[in-house]
Amino acid sequence: MRTLRLLLEKEFRQIFRDKGLLPVIFILPLIQLLIMPLAANFDVKNINLAVVDRDHSTYTQQLVSKIASSGYFHITGYHNDYTPALRQIEREKADIIMEVPAHFEQDLVKENKAFIYLAADAINGTKAGLGSAYLTSILADYNNEVRLKWLPAQPAAAGTVDLRFSNWFNPYMNYRLFMVPGILVLLVTMVCGFIAALNIVKEKEIGTIEQINVTPVKKWQFIMGKMIPFWVIGMVDFTLGLLLARLVYGIIPVGNLALLYMFLAVYLVALLGFGLLISTYSDNQLQAMFVAFFFIMIFMLMSGLFVSVDNMPGWAKVIAMLTPVTHFVEVVRMIVLKGSKFSDIQFQLLVEVMFAVVLNGWAILNYRKTS
Amino acid sequence: METVTLHNISKTYGKGATPALKDVSFSVNKGELFGLIGPDGAGKSTIFRILTTLLLADEGTATVGGLDVVKDYHRIRSSVGYMPGRFSLYQDLTIEENLTFFATLFGTTVAANYELIKDIYRQIAPFKDRRAGKLSGGMKQKLALCCALVHKPEVLFLDEPTTGVDAVSRREFWDMLQQLKQQGITIVVSTPYMDEARRCERIALIQAGSILSIDTPDAIINAYPGQLYALKAAHIPHLLNDVRGFEGVGQCYAAGEYLHMVFRSGSEEHLLAFLEGKGHKDIILKKIKPDIEDCFIRLLTTTHQ
Q1: CATH for B2-219?
Q2: Would the CA dihedral through B47, B51, B57, B63 be positive or negative?
Q3: Which positions in chain A touch B92 (Cβ < 8 Å)?
Q4: Which end of chain B is more exposed for a tag (fewer CB within 10 A), N or C?
Q5: Boundaries of CATH 3.30.70.100 in chain B?
Q6: How far is B45 from chain A (nearest CA, A)?
Q7: Distance CA B251, CA B32 (A)
Q8: Which CATH superfamily is domain A47-158 in?
Q9: Per-residue DSSP letters for A101-143?
Q10: Residue A165: is its pLDDT beyond 80?
Q11: Nearest neighbour of B93 by CB, restricted to A10, A216, A217
């Protein structure tokens, strides 16, 4: 025990003395947590709309003011012809063109139907897709109003089916509510994964491991001496991130915090085992860095953080299931958004325990004091 | 009594590579200051790594303090001190922290064995709060020696402790080793500098993984066959070429401002006449006593032939 305490003391001392490493461990993740959710925002607002009005009627004006008042659209131009509107798109001044043909009002009154032409700039796919969807629903709404005006006596006669959605656990579809917990997992994974992978290699590279290896220090003591400090750092980083999520994004976990931390504790052991494993196979920090980078890249892209695992093809799902990060991202979202209980996450917990045992066992077997 | 023994140790790094050690056997007596002398790549560090249980030999057996390096590696680790060729202490810890750290790892304290290290530690004590990475080469080496000694080891292994250290610090370092020897510690030290060989009680000359000779420095010098000559003239590079062209000369090589040479059949008079005929001036030819380097060079050529 005395030896272990000594090793821990030494490790913490080295970490806190490294003036370059400290901000990387504690400050950078927080800055990322402030930037990334804002950048990775799929909410679409301020769609620039160029209107081509060939009709100049009351109906057109009503339609345009209805669109403008929806809050999603910003009318950037009001043209008489299609060509100048297209020029607006080419100059990236407009995202969508709405063309109201001549005799729009006349057709609507006389023939009971009229057409409207929409053209969206699909270079920004999200904006184009969502924008035209918003616009279509506003048009449908407008259509209903017109009908009501004409047939005030029998509103039911319209006979349309109105679909209304309600999103569970995130009623306003607040994108941040969904992304922030996931990004928090990512940051803890990056920080702990990398420092664990680099640390033992650093001792190899500087040669200090040579001096340690000739002492009576036991293998488990040395490895525990390495693991515990990073485990603590992971816990602290996660807590800081959670506080930031609460203060900045107003995200308060619905579920049990103790459950969340229990899962985090197991997850960190698995993750550090992964780092140590890379460490034992690498000869220098550069090698370790590249190998760790390769795997963490896969972890990030396959973890279901950006693309839902359920939408992946079968083989990709298998890969996703074989990374410890996937399960933690899922569980964090479950606990923070849904308030899941222990019984809901026990499968993921079991998988994480298995990761912890396999990765650490492998790392310990592979770390030898004698070559 | 033998404290360190090696029997027919062989080691090859990787398949098909040139062996690092070929059938090496020697032993070190208790309380002895034993030197492994040889150029870079001779296999000195490999021997140290095997004896300090960091590396497994392919063949052969070795013991340290009567314990087998394979079976009893754990007990050996607590009873030897090892100073690797490269500075291997924590550069971001201070002198004092490093020393305390290693003392505690060995289950002891600095105070308990202070007597042993005090002469060395006193020299670096004024800087005890300075980080090891910021020390000069000589101070780093003294700190490393303190750390290797702090648990009062029976055997001290020093791998090229004086490489890259200035001449004054080198001399001081050897004085420190003499003092440690007085305290009964067995010391095995390696060096590529032939002039340091005289400071050892016994030396092993090693080259390309094989031991060329083991004896006291004096005995090795006395075993030098024949008479060694030193030769000098106004124009040394030409002189070397011309002497090598002379029939009766066995071996001739540059050593400082002189050439060292031995005769195979010729005589002094013949050589002088030959060189004067070649137009050399200010020729000095004198008999000298060989040093370790001469012995090493002779052993190299005889084993190659």
Answers
A1: 3.40.50.300
A2: positive
A3: 14, 17-18
A4: C
A5: 225-289
A6: 12
A7: 34
A8: abc type-2 transporter like domain (3.40.1710.10)
A9: PTTHHHHHHHHS----EEEE-TTSHHHHHHHHHHHHHHHHHHH
A10: no
A11: A10
Q: How far apart are CA A115 and CA A58, in angstroms?
A: 16
In the stretch 76-105 of chain B, residues with CB closer than 8 A to chain A read 77-78, 80, 82, 84, 86-93, 97, 101-102, 104-105
Can you tell me the ipTM of this complex? 0.78
Sort strands B202-207 and B210-215 into parallel, antiparallel or unpaired: antiparallel
**Closest chain B CA to residue A371:** B55
- B53, B89, B92 member nearest A17 (Cβ): B92
Identify the burial level of A313 via C-beta atoms within 10 angstroms of its C-beta, where 0-12 means exposed, 13-18 middle and 19 or more buried. Answer: exposed
DSSP three-state, residue A50: strand
pLDDT, one tens digit per residue, over A5-43 is: 999 999 999 999 888 888 888 888 889 888 887 776 666
Half-sphere exposure (Cβ direction) of A253: Cα atoms closer than 13 Å: 24
Nearest CA in chain A to B150: A215
Residue B1 has a CB neighbour count (10 Å cut-off) of 9
Percent of chain B with pLDDT over 70: 99
Q: Is B108 left (phi over 0), alpha (psi -120 to 50) or beta?
A: beta
The answer to whether the beta carbons of residues B150 and B113 sit under 8 Å apart is yes
Which residues of chain A neighbour B73 with C-beta distances below 8 Å? 370
- Residue B212 burial class via C-beta count within 10 angstroms: exposed 0-12, middle 13-18, buried 19 and up: buried
Q: What's the CATH class of domain B225-289?
A: alpha beta
Which one, of B155, B154, B153, B129, lies nearest residue B143 by Cα? B129
Whether residue B302 has pLDDT greater than 70: yes
Q: What pLDDT does residue B195 have? A: 85
User: Considering only CB atoms, which chain B residues are within 8 Å of A369?
Assistant: 53-54
Return the minimum-mean-pLDDT range out of A260-264, A310-314, B299-303: B299-303
Alpha-carbon gap, residue B279 to B274, rounded angstroms: 9
A207 contact B CB<8A: yes
pLDDT in tens, B94-138: 999 999 999 999 989 999 989 889 888 998 999 999 999 998 888
Share of chain B above pLDDT 90, in %: 40
Please list, in sequence order, all residues whose beta carbon lies within 8 angstroms of the beta carbon of residue A368, skipping any fewer than 6 positions away: none
Contact B84/A371, CB-based, under 8 Å?
no
Both structure tokens of B170: 């080198």
Instruction: Report whether pLDDT(A51) > 70.
Output: yes
Q: What is the mean pLDDT of residues B161-176?
A: 87
Q: Which residues numbered 116-155 in B keep a CB inside 8 Å of some CB on A?
A: 147
Q: Is B148 exposed, middle or buried (0-12, 13-18, 19+ CB in 10 A)?
A: buried
Q: How far is the C-alpha of B36 from the C-alpha of B205, rounded, in Å? A: 6
Which pair of structure tokens corresponds to residue A236?
């602290």
Domain ranges within chain A, ordered by starting residue? 2-40+172-366, 47-158
Nearest to A216 among B52, B77, B82 (CB): B77
pLDDT at B266 over 80: no
State residue A237's pLDDT score: 94
Residue B271 pLDDT > 70: yes
